[in-house]
Every structure is written in C-alpha cells, then in structure tokens.
Amino acid sequence: MSEPTGEAADANVSVHEGITYADREAGEMELDLYLPDEERPPLVVYVHGGGWIAETRDNVPDPERYAAEWGCAIASVSYRLAEVPDDAGPEIQGMYDPTNPTPRGAFPAHFVDVKAAIRWLRATAAEYGYDAERIAAWGSSAGGHLALLAGVVKDVMDLGETFDGELTKSVAPDTSGAVQAVVSWYGLTDFTFAADHAPGIPSLLLGGPASDHPKRFEQASPLTHVSADSPPTLLMHGRADEVVAVEHSRRFFDSLDEAGVNAVFYELHDRNHVWAERIEDIESERVAMDLLATEPTPSQSVYSATHVDEGETPEPLLDTALPAGPAAIEQFLARTIE
C-alpha cells in the first residue's frame, strides 16, 4: 500500500494521491483515494465532468469531508480526455486547456479507463481496506454519462460491436468492473437526442455527426443499455440546465422504471448546469455541493420508482422529503451499498 501523500481536512480520513491504476501509451492514468477510519467501508468511484475534453480528477466535491461524513471510501479517477482539433468551434476551444496534464485519447478510451479504474480498485481492495463488493459510481455531467454507462454496461467488452476493435482489458482483466449503484448529476444519457440539440461536443467525441456514425451514437448512450439487471440509480438534474437538457435524466429514469429497476430522480427547479442559477455563474464541481446546501434550498420535484416481487414489502431507495444534496446521497448509498 502507498503511504498517504496528503493531509486530510478530517483527521479520520487518510489520503493517497496520484496512484497509478493503468499505464497507457498516452501516459499514466491516476486516481486519488480517500479512506475513512472505518472497517471495510464501501467505495464510491467519482468521475469528474468537463465535457470529456477538460478538467482533472481534482474536480470533485470535497472528498475528504464526504468520505468522513458518509463512512465511504472515495476514489476520484482520471480518464483519457478527447483531443481538441485546431478547427474546433469557439465553445469547445473555450473549454480546452492545453496545459492540462491528463493523457488524451479517442472515445471509447474514456469508458475503457473508468472501467479499468473500477476493476483495479476492486482487485486492490484488500490492500487499502475497503469492501470490493460494495462499489458505487458517481459522476457529474460528462462524468455522469460515464458513471451511468459503467452502471448499465457491466463489462467493458460488452459496450457494442461498433467499438470492438477499440476495447481493451489490460488492467485486472479477470476482475469484475460492475458497480452496485450509480449517482448521476446532470449526466448525458442519449447521444442521439444530444445530436439534435447540442451537436458540437458529441460529434467531436464520437468522430463525426450522428448521420455518419449512428451506431456509435447509439452504443455510447447509457439509455441504450438499460436492462432489468441495471443497478439502482439516483439522478439529480436542473430543470433549467442549458448544457445537458433535463430530458436526458427524464428519459433515463423512465427507462429504468420500465425495466423494473429502482431509481430516484430529483428535478431541481430553476437550476442550471453544476447547480448554478444562471449559465454565466457556472463554476466547477468542487463547489457544486455547497450550491445545493444554500438557503433557501432549491425547489424540487422528486420521482421514485420502487419495484418489488409479489408479497414483498416495498423498500424505497430514500425518503423523498430530503432535499437534493449530501444527505440524500448519503441515504441512497446507505440503502444500496452499505
């Protein structure tokens, strides 16, 4: 086990920074691990946002605090980001930071890395002391898409024939990459829908417009892969989101419900992307949880799908009177992976 390399804000959390989980041609892929002083806690794998082209694993809401408060280990993972060509539009160029040290690669490299991180974390659980059988994925925006995809596609090799030649399992290949629960903040779920409403980044990510690559757009969409075996899911999305339309989470919730999967969907009134009130106020995920906890708390509508076999007692994923924010996520994790 590596020695802690950072001083946790909470004395009961040890921090291991810059752990290499994969060595790619483009460079080393790393993660940061936050371990609470608990015996075999469950693990939450956090996947950052940034439009698949920007940000780093530092773009995570206060992991030391929530590792301590929730009693969960938290791993914030890097994944290869998409290359940005010189002729990309101003919106994409505005997000791109050429000094970002994260290795670059073409989709499905993003998904391959997230699955590799999950397998590596499960394979090394005994070394660090968390429970390999209780793992949730949590992601925001582009990371929400990748977390949802990791939930509904159990094995990276199952993503689809369209990507067969681009899928690899070089990291802990005999270990499961499945997760037992998913939390998505304003994650994209349907690239075919996105292609009609925000074509720029999906086309960049998937190698061209949907008209040229319909199968890639379909297979990269978490919505395509929902089944009765999908894990319980907590969705949170702003109704006023101008970056990833709330319709993405609406469709995904409905699909989970139809498949008989337990899910909860928080739709926050008057909140934009990253929980900002206006698009010009959007900041990073580092402060996003604080925006949910402001007073007064955001108005919300909550939809719950609870499925039981005949004769069984319904067990909801959480008490829907809870406001969106850390308490709701904590209770969801407690009822799914604890």
UniProtKB/TrEMBL annotation:
All copies of domain BD-FAE-like, residue ranges: 31-83, 106-255
Highest rank taxon of the organism: Archaea
Any one GO molecular function term: hydrolase activity
Keywords recorded for this protein, A-Z: Hydrolase
Signal sequence, renumbered to the chain: none
InterPro entries in the cross-refs: AB_hydrolase_fold, BD-FAE-like_dom, GDXG_lipolytic_enzyme
PANTHER family: AB HYDROLASE SUPERFAMILY PROTEIN C4A8.06C (PTHR48081), ALPHA_BETA HYDROLASE (PTHR48081:SF13)
Name by which UniProt lists this protein: Esterase/lipase-like protein
